[in-house]
Design a protein that fits this description.
Layout (H helix, E strand, L loop, with lengths): L10 E7 L2 E9 L12 E9 L1 H22 L7 H6 L4 H8 L2
Antiparallel strand pairs: 1-2, 2-3
Length: 99
């Protein structure tokens, strides 16, 4: 049996199409770059799946995270600048994660 890869990613890209989607997981470069120069990004894994599978995963991930945070009595937030970079409004973020 082939060895299962174990990867770390700090970025992702989602591509949707009428018949499925592709998730590209990426990791940022280790060294600082000059201002105005895009940082090097390495793709570490690609996962292709149906839209139905993606929606089921999104539902289960959301349910698991909300359950964990309730049990552990923690709330995992994102800094405002990250929300801005992802084009997520603060009120949308809070409404999505509200139990």
């Amino acid at each position: 049996m082939a060895e299962t890869p174990d990867v770390y990613a700090d970025q992702f890209q989602l591509n949707l199409g009428p018949l499925g989607c592709t998730l590209n997981f990426q990791v940022s470069g280790a060294n600082p770059v000059a201002p105005g120069v895009p940082p090097p990004i390495e793709r570490v894994a690609t996962v292709r799946l149906s839209l139905q599978h993606l929606k089921a995963m999104a539902f289960i991930l959301h349910k698991q995270i909300v359950g964990y945070e309730a049990q552990a009595q923690v709330s995992t937030g994102l800094p405002v600048d990250v929300l801005r970079a992802l084009q997520i409004r603060q009120e949308d973020w809070e409404a999505f994660w509200r139990p």
